[in-house]
Amino acid sequence: MTTWGLVSTLKAPVEAVLNFAAWHLELGATRLILHFDDPKDPVQALLRDHPRIEVISTDHAYWQRLKGRRPARHQPRQTANATRAYAANTACDWLGHIDVDEFLLPERPVADLLSDLPARCHAARLRPAEALVAPAPSSQVHLKAFSVETPLRHQQSTRIFPTYGRWLNGGMLSHVAGKLFVRKGLPQAELRIHNVLSNDIKNPGQVELSTIPLAHFHAGSWENWLAHFRFRLEQGAYRADLKPAQPDTATLHELLCQIDAGEGEPGLQRFFDEVCCDTPALRARLSHEGLLRVAEMDFDRLRADHFPHHST
Length: 312
Hints:
The structure is a single chain. By secondary structure, the protein is an alpha/beta fold. The protein has a domain at 4-129 and 174-219 and 298-306: Spore Coat Polysaccharide Biosynthesis Protein SpsA, Chain A (Alpha-Beta Complex), CATH 3.90.550. Helix content is 36%, strand content 20%. It has ten helices and 15 strands. The chain has helices at residues 14-26, 44-47, 60-66, 74-88, 110-115, 150-160, 222-234, 252-276, 280-288, 299-306; strands at residues 4-10, 31-36, 53-57, 94-97, 102-104, 123-126, 128-131, 140-144, 179-183, 189-191, 196-198, 201-202, 207-208, 214-216, 292-296. Helix 1 (14-26) crosses helix 10 and helix 7 (222-234) packs antiparallel against helix 8. The chain is globular, with a radius of gyration of 19 Å. It starts with a strand and ends in a 6-residue tail after the last helix. One of its GO terms (molecular function) is transferase activity. It comes from Pseudooceanicola spongiae.
C-alpha cells in the first residue's frame, strides 16, 4: 500500500488549520507534518495528540538548530521546513508540500493515483484551481481551472475575464506552477515552493498529475482579500519581481498598483468582483471553456468527525 503525507508551514486561524487537517486525514494521509510559524499558536494544543499529525513549533531553538537563525521571509522558512521534513520522515512513500489554503481534490484515492506513477517519476506536479468566492456559505465550491498549454491559456484568460484577463495567467491570481508530491529517497533533496532539487537535478522524472487538482482558497472574501492585499503586493503573489502573465503586458503588480493609485478601494473591488466572485456569468464563461470545477467540501462535518472535541 502506497503511503503519503503532507508538509506545511502554517499561520492561520484555528478553523482554517482544522479544515486543512481534517480534509487530508479524510483523504487518507498517513502523516501531516505541520510547522507552526508562530511558536505560540494555540491550535498546536488541539492537534498535538493526534496519531497521524506531527506538530512542530518553530521557536528560536528550532531555528538555531536548523539554520542558525530564523529566515526573515516566509518563503525560505517554508522551504527549510519542507526540506527538513523530507529528510527526517520515513513514514511515507511520497511527501507533498502545500499551504494551509490548498486542498487535494483527487479523482480516486490518493494512494492509488501515486502508486500508478512510473518508477522513473520522483516528482508529481499538482496544478491549482482557485476557489471562487460564493455570495453565501456553502459546502459546494466552484473553482476556476486553467489550461496547461500556454497560448490557449492566454486566449481563454482574455475571453473569460474581459476587463483584466490579459494581465492574468489563466485567470489565476496566485501561482500556476502548482505544487509537488516528491517520492522519498532522493539524495540531497532540497524542497522549494514549486520544485525539488536532487544533486542539482530539478524535478527528476516529473509527471503532470492531472488527476489531483489542488483547490486553492486564495481569496476568502472581499474583506479577507483586501486585508492580505498589501502583504501580497510587497512580498507575496503580487510582488514586483514576478514576470508579467502574458507577453507585452504590465505585471499584475503594476496593474494593481495602478488601480490602487487611480481608483482606490472601489477600483480594487471591481477587479475582485470580476476575477474572484462566484457569479452565474463567470461560471458560464468558465464552463464554456471547460474550466469550471465543482467540489463538495463540507468542512463543518469533517471537523466534527476528526476533531469532535475541538470543532468550531
